[in-house]
Design a protein that fits this description.
NADP-dependent oxidoreductase domain-containing protein, 39% helix, eight-stranded parallel sheet, oxidoreductase activity, acting on the CH-OH group of donors, NAD or NADP as acceptor
């Protein structure tokens, strides 16, 4: 079983359902990636900041060596962390990613956040997270257009096939498009029934940019991080509206949440440690929600954002 494909604006088709590598523990990561490939996953959404790219690469390369899949059948994703926005550091960053993954190219490379932190050498701390040195939070004056131009250079060199942006607001995307030689192929955003972002999604898709939703299960991704808002809100996997729709279609609540996205051509990147759920999450395009069911799910919106840079250091990306 594999996922249906969605064509990007550069002509490349990518799976509508991928495997998210955020918070996958290093000790089990390689095995999980291998197992996910075995059951049919072909897109793996990683990032420099996740700290597990060496292990992702181990799983990928073992699967290729064992003949489960060919490299050209996989879509390996990473994201440029905030510390490497300066054009002098963008190529260094992607080379580091490729070295960790033990691959020759990336299929998709995003700007992770529209935030340029002070550069931190790999040997000083990697991944650096929010670390900027001994003085606390420090930023670099690097325009997004400058960073984007460096990503375009990676495509021209063949190091990356598709480039995208993540956690961008509409105004930032509009400004980026004014100078971009290569239009972003994808936008990745937090997306679940508590944060539907309908206007942004419509506008972005109208520009021919594919939308990828992360944290499709809402609070579930943040409960283990002791996120206050996550513990204060009902789990979408147990919400009565989602549960009622799941029973009507004889599917799981997780499948309803994923189908709510993919039915509107939004890519998703769930993960699971369990084989049965891995298969269920991949098998979400064989039923359709009614227009009324989609409206019911949309009505749960609270504009509730769990991943907000304002909570880090009052960084005003979404204010």
């Amino acid at each position: 079983m594999t996922s249906k494909l969605i064509k990007l604006n550069n002509g490349i088709s990518v799976p509508a359902v991928g495997f998210g590598c955020w918070k996958v523990e290093k000790s089990i990561c390689a095995d999980q990636i291998y197992e996910a490939i075995k059951v049919g996953y072909r897109l793996f959404d990683g990032a420099m900041d996740y700290g597990n790219e060496k292990e992702v690469g181990q799983g990928v390369n073992r699967a290729i060596k064992d003949g489960l899949v060919k490299r050209e059948e996989l879509f390996i994703v990473s994201k440029l962390w905030n510390s490497y926005h300066h054009p002098d550091n963008v190529k260094k960053a992607v080379k580091k990613v490729l070295d960790d993954l033990q691959l020759d190219y990336l299929d998709i490379f995003y700007i992770h956040f529209p935030i340029a932190q002070k550069f931190v050498p790999f040997e000083e701390k990697y991944p650096p997270g929010f670390y900027c040195g001994s003085n606390g939070w420090e930023f670099e004056d690097v325009p997004l257009a400058t960073t984007w131009k460096a990503l375009e250079g990676l495509v021209e060199e063949g190091l990356v096939k598709s480039i995208g942006i993540s956690n961008f607001s509409g105004a930032l995307i509009l400004d980026l498009l004014r100078s971009a030689k290569i239009k972003p192929q994808l936008l990745q955003i937090e997306h679940h029934p508590y944060l539907t972002q309908e206007k942004l999604i419509k506008w972005v898709q109208d520009q021919g940019i594919a939308v990828v939703g992360y944290s499709s299960f809402g609070p579930q991704s943040f409960v283990e991080l002791n996120h206050k808002k996550a513990t204060e809100n009902i789990s979408l996997l147990k919400h009565e509206v989602i549960d009622s729709i799941a029973k009507a279609h004889n599917v799981s609540t997780a499948q309803v949440l994923l189908r709510w996205a993919t039915q509107r051509d939004i890519l998703v990147i769930p993960k699971s440690n369990q084989r049965e759920r891995l298969i269920q999450n991949l098998d979400v395009n064989n039923f359709d929600l009614t227009e009324e069911e989609i409206k019911q799910i949309n009505s749960l919106n609270q504009d509730l954002r769990f991943n907000d840079p304002w909570t880090w250091d009052e960084i005003p990306i979404f204010v």
